[in-house]
Amino acid sequence: MINTHDLWAMEHKALSSLLASMSVMQPDPEAGRRDGLMEPGEYTVSNGVAVIPIRGVLSVNPSYYGKLFGYATAFADIRTMAAEAAQDPAVEAIILNIDSPGGTVAGTQETAAALRAAGKQKPLYAWTSGNMTSAAYWLASAAQRIGSVETAQIGSIGVIATMMEMTKMAKKAGVKFNIIKTGQWKAAGHPFKAMTSDERDYFQERVDEVLTIFIRDVARYRGVDEEQAAMMSDDARVYLGRLALDVGLIDSVHTNMDDFIIIANKENKAMDIKELKGKHPELYDAVKTKGAEAAIAEVSEKLERAEARVQAAEERVMAIVDQVADEATIEKIRVIMETGLDAEKIERLQAVFGGSSEESAAAGTTQQQILEALQKLTPPAAQDGGDSGETDDDKRRAKAKAIADRANR
């Protein structure tokens, strides 16, 4: 039988119904799968969108709940489907099709984290036309966009634990239970022992701590601060679709899931930098890093091509100079070229000399003409033979860093 001390992230009416069923039914671990009440753990693909079904009670071991509640979904199945869809080449986006009142706290946080990881690889959306409450909303909050119909029930950000006390029933039946234990808290919440005020405080602390974690995750996933996330929870209130949109629990209301997917895809592509940074900081950091790396690579490639052109032009110019100048003049020209000429200036200088060394010599180009042309094309610092101390690698790194700095802003 279920341990009723378990913490639940589940809408309270659904939990009450489940616990009532538990009190009259015998457990059958395989009933859910045998009777077709559990999701098979397989997603479907339509128009490039993987649809992951999340229905009924959510649990680490859901077969028993499937029999009690009508249907159930295993957290492990959700994580597996999300990971497979993220790697599926036929899948361009993923949507969680949710109709669930929530489930056990155990398994929820790690499943939400797994969904968030899948959303870093491909767009991840969440949708409901029924229930998306408590643990089900915890999972949905990990999506990049959430949508619903107007009549959907959304929210119930809270935690609950139900403790049965059967001391009066036992006394009426003439039965007395003797509890032998170690430690003050070992029998806390035992159904045949009256709960003390200290024990109630003990369980309340656990419930409050899980709620803190729940709200913290919702804040992080939805891109808001924890105070705003707490206001969105509004003491575990359940909202209908339009009100859920107003308080920020979801992003849009539609008449059907297909319309939501179309609009979500468009908005996802059109998302600006501020929204990306605010709502999805992890994705923003990944995009920023890749963009900076691509920009640096592009600049480096352009610089290398420019340097190659400069070197080729230098070689052509020096071949001409060798034909008409003495060694001292050649060395002076070489220094000027290395410190002060760029590709455009060298090409203009080459035009002064002519197309080839033979043509230049035949035209009677003089050393004075060469020096005058160099002086016109070269900055004053270079004419003086000054050395800035900055190498080509230094210049390349400086330009690449400037590009990266702009990408990081």
Quick structural overview:
The protein is α/β, with parallel strands linked by helices and 409 residues long. The protein contains 19 helices and ten strands. Helix 4 (75-87) runs parallel beside helix 5, helix 12 (273-279) crosses helix 13 and helix 15 (343-353) runs antiparallel to helix 17 (367-377).
Question: Could you walk me through the main structural features you see in this protein, from its secondary elements to its overall organization?
Answer:
With 409 residues, the chain is α/β, with parallel strands linked by helices. The protein folds into 2 domains: 8-270, 2-enoyl-CoA Hydratase, Chain A, domain 1 (Alpha-Beta Complex), CATH 3.90.226; 284-408, no CATH class. It is built from 19 helices and 10 strands. It has helices spanning 12-22, 31-34, 63-69, 75-87, 108-121, 135-140, 167-172, 197-222, 226-233, 241-247, 257-270, 273-279, 281-324, 327-340, 343-353, 357-362, 367-377, 380-383, 392-408, and strands at residues 8-10, 44-46, 49-59, 72-74, 93-104, 124-133, 145-148, 153-155, 238-240, 252-253. Strands 1, 2, 3, 4, 5, 6, 7, 8, 9 and 10 form a 10-stranded mixed β-sheet that branches. Strand 5 (93-104), helix 5 (108-121) and strand 6 (124-133) form a beta-alpha-beta unit. Helix 8 crosses helix 9 (226-233) and helix 15 (343-353) packs antiparallel against helix 17 (367-377). The longest helix has 44 residues, at 281-324. The radius of gyration is 36 Å and the shape is elongated. The two termini are 57 Å apart. Mean pLDDT is 75; it is low at 1-5, 23-39 and 381-386.
